[in-house]
Input
Amino acid sequence: MENEAALFKEKLEKEISARIKAEKQIEKLKNELGKALNQKNTIIKNEPDVIFSISGKGEIITPSPPQKNKLSGHLINGEKPTIHSVFREKNASLFDNAFKKCLKKETCQFSFNQRKNGKTNYYESRLVKTGPNEVLAIVRDITPLKNSGKQLKKALKKAEEISRSKSEFLANVSHEIRTPLNAILGFSQWLFENSDQKQHREYLSTILESARNLLTLLNDLLDLSKIEAGKMEMDIHPMNYQEVINDIKLVFQEKVENKELSFNIITDASVPDNFFMDEIRFYQIIFNLVSNAVKFTKSGHIQISAHTKKSAKQNKVNLIISIEDTGIGISEKQQKNIFETFTRQDSHQNREHEGTGLGLAIVNGLLKKLNGTISLESKPEKGSMFTVTFFDVKTAPADNPRVAPPKEGTVMQLEPCKIMIVDDISYNKLVLKQIISSEQVSYIEESDGTSALAKLKTDKPDIIFMDIRMPGISGYDAAEAIKQDKDLKHIPLIAFTASTLKDHSKQIHSLFDGYLQKPVFKKDVDIILKKHLKFSYVDKKTEAG
Ligand code: ADP
Output
């Protein structure tokens, strides 16, 4: 018996110690679990997002401790909060729909907004399926993000407005400067051509040179502002490569001869005669590069070479044109930012040359618009080579070539004709008449659209030059009336304007047959006259004008 009792006691003691051990183990586990729960709660409490589970009945199963005041101050309060007791009806149904979607697709995402303290707050909600009929919702307050987006949009709008008014201001100023420049250039040119006194001719040539420089600067500033505002539109038409290059050569002929430089043009047979291009902008790019080459070269040569490479596209080529000089060259340091605005070489030599540092930035901007690139190789004191590549240039058939250039010693003579000039500024009319300078021509001069339209009832000219900005009926309105009149619409109508706004030129294209910008140059006037009026080439001496 004693033995049995001793055995029982021993067994009991073992069981008790095992139980005590197990209880200690449980206590330890409880502690660890408590810690883990605390940690989880701390994480959830400090988490910027609101996290909660939603049951199939729409009940919100709150984490512990509950996250108060995160959504509109009343999310997750009350005994058993539900989606419908916490959110407004509209948002609650968004949650209901998302819940259903999430059970099918495992995850779902949507955004909503809710008023809080009189302000609208924006939220983004992500749902993840956590059980057969339960999802976990993570709701993030994205109000600050939304607000900064709104502020950015506002700032962008303001910046766009400023840029627009800057462009308009520049266009207006340019109009105001161009008008007097038209008179300065027109009359100086006429006096220069008709003066016999050497000294007068020298002074006049300086006036002409200065006025032309002013005009170039004005054009550069306008172009740059258009490029920067993203408003530079390209006007692509068939263009004859050789004619453009020859025109450029002609412009620099005198300077090149004075400096005793040789000017070579090398054109590979693969270069198409005609291709689709914005001729004015193409001219401007090559002109700028050649102008720099001439400006920065004292001796040696200037060379324009062109060749093509195969394009991946049918009927298209990559056109590569290099402008090479043996001038002062460009240091490696300056080469790095040479295509940025206002960069000029800071060397003693460069100070001798005039310029604003806008040319290459404009060239670069134009090339981007024309699917082109530019690169530079240069060694100081040896020379520079700028290479422009126009990608995927479409070749054009050789139709409608410009009127053949005159033979040496001949000049253009118009057949007898009548020209109407409509402009409110009288010296603009006078300048144009002096540029046309032909005794074969009789003129009808009017100062506004109304009087021009009245005159056209009885008198029909062979061509009309029409100013755009005039008091009363504008040039556009007058042009519209002319083009709607069956007796007048065939008369070539040329816009004659100092304005440079692009939206104007769109209207000009649709209403007018040509465009002559003030200040006007003889070369441009002649192109228009040759295109629209009858003429012949006569010997300089027998000229009747
Ligand atoms: P600008 O000629 O009006 O100064 P550009 O933008 O055309 O402005 O040229 C910027 C600068 O790049 C020039 O001032 C000159 O220092 C340098 N540069 C451009 N082309 C040449 C060249 N062919 N040879 C030497 N330097 C050049």
